[in-house]
Amino acid sequence: MHVKLNPVERPSTQVTLSCDDCPIRYRAVCANCEAGDLERLEAAKYDRSYQAGQVIVWAGERMDFVASMVSGVASLTQALEDGRTQMVGLLLPSDFLGRPGRETAPYTVTAVTDVSLCCFRRKPFEEMMAHNPRLPARLLEMTLDELDAAREWLMLLGRKSAREKIASFLSILARREASLRHERPSGEIELTLPLTREAMADYLGLTLETVSRQMSALKRDKLIELRGKRGVVLVDYELLLSESGDDADGGLVH
Amino acid sequence: MHVKLNPVERPSTQVTLSCDDCPIRYRAVCANCEAGDLERLEAAKYDRSYQAGQVIVWAGERMDFVASMVSGVASLTQALEDGRTQMVGLLLPSDFLGRPGRETAPYTVTAVTDVSLCCFRRKPFEEMMAHNPRLPARLLEMTLDELDAAREWLMLLGRKSAREKIASFLSILARREASLRHERPSGEIELTLPLTREAMADYLGLTLETVSRQMSALKRDKLIELRGKRGVVLVDYELLLSESGDDADGGLVH
DNA sequence: CGATGAGTTGAGAGCAATCAAGATGGGTGG
DNA sequence: CCACCCATCTTGATTGCTCTCAACTCATCG
Question: Among B154, B202, B253, which would you mutate to test the A interface (most chain A Cβ atoms within 10 Å of its Cβ)?
Fold first, then answer.
């Protein structure tokens, strides 16, 4: 994959934001922590950023840190011998990256957009987890949510048609956008797709041609409008949802 | 679904096994607990059993207990409006059923074989989790393992051919069987399938006809032998694995 | 020994993948 | 500022895998 490099070529590392100003303060692993806990976390944390397209960790590589997504979108991807790939996770702000107690990464993690992370070296973080029950408790909650999302995803991959997959994907994005603004999605919604057609295909278990064709079909059927390569207008959220195959209430927000 | 009923029609409830004799003592949520912890758990626990085919919980139903699988196999299943179904979880002995802090079940849980559970009413269990960090810590570990398994499953559903799906499924079963005996699978392996063709289809995102056809094809190609409806002999585990599409080491045990 | 549920096999249709050109448009350099 | 470039995306033609519909076999059980 071609990567355009900034003046700073390697992922930049700097100690920056304090937890007080952190945009994910109340949604990340640290959400339940109190002032005292935060001090300890803050002393150990360091920031890192990656540009769109950069690989954050390669599958099989040793991984000595864990991190929270502060901004941007990253993907977890798995590959078969012959090169077929499937996305198996999509990391958004506040999501947790890495597994305490695990030495090597099982998936390749790639920055899909520009990404910034709040990192901790793994060992000290495991220490903190052992001494502060708020961390494992919150991580459990987040992992259970991720498992729910993965199960919704299994249904999508196993049983939905290409059209339903696209409709589901767009609905999921809309719900997520809305939830950032503490809203419930409805009516007309404008989105910017964080993923290329190829990445969408990897997410949905399709080819990029099929993704493109189905996007065109939804446009033809007046369910969406396309604004350039990445802009999409969902003309009517409820209508789109009815194309997704799910039952009415639309499942879980990631 | 037709269910043959025992003399005891409803799931039987009895206080039986002590934790000392429990076959899943060192693998379930309670794995890390010590004598004192176990006393409290033992005081609150009650057993329950279900026959093959019985529904344990319906999706959307209120669920006031959590449980560990003691024996048997159960499935988590999700359905779309029009009746298409996808299995989204397969519970084996020591697996945990239910989510602390959640009121209603998001999936239908069905006993695939006869099943026995070690149950706790949800509220008291949440209490114990809050006071005993070994429980949430172990549950986190188990949930992370389940998430890994779900991600392997995403790859299977999204990118594998019908033949590869069947080969993967049989390999997974073999690995699991072997791990119960603390072995590494290899060579010739005899299995009893816990699932019907239909349940396999639900697991693999296929139709039951396709499952049947691919089983026949593997038989024709001398990769497996069939012994009645449920018996399968994997003639050569390594050879079968090479048909599964995965890279050599074969991924994670559930 | 019919009835029943599970599994197998066959023929045909349909949906998404594959192979192959084009079109678009965001970014760069002249 | 415009024109070109190249990655990204779209569209078309064809193939092929899996689904669908249907008939049939097999084992089990009253």
Answer: B154
- Predicted confidence pLDDT, tens digits, chain B (254 residues): 444 444 344 555 555 678 999 999 999 999 999 999 999 999 999 999 999 999 999 999 999 999 999 999 999 999 999 999 999 999 999 999 999 999 999 999 999 999 999 999 999 999 999 999 999 999 999 999 999 999 999 999 999 999 999 999 999 999 988 988 889 999 999 999 999 999 999 999 999 999 999 999 999 999 999 999 999 999 999 999 999 999 644 444 44
Picking from B87, B144, B252, the nearest residue to A143 by CB comes out as B144
Tell me, yes or no, if B78 comes closer than 8 A to chain A by beta carbon.
Answer: yes
Q: Which CATH code is given to the segment(s) B2-144?
A: 2.60.120.10
Q: How far apart are CA B83 and CA B105, in angstroms?
A: 18
Q: Does residue B207 reach within 7 angstroms of strand D, measured from its CB?
A: yes
Using CA coordinates, name the residue in chain B closest to A152.
B88
* Nearest nt to the B159 alpha carbon by C1': C17
Could you tell me how far CA B28 lies from the centroid of its own chain?
Answer: 13
Question: Which CATH entry fits the domain spanning A160-242: 2.170.150.20, 2.60.40.10, 3.30.420.40, 1.10.10.10?
Answer: 1.10.10.10
- Under 8 Å between Cβ of B175 and B253: yes
Domain boundaries, given as residue ranges, for chain A: 2-144, 160-242
Q: What is the pTM of this model?
A: 0.92
Question: In residues, how long is chain A?
Answer: 254
Task: Answer yes or no: is A182 CB < 7 A from strand C.
Answer: no
Residue B37 identity (one-letter amino acid): D
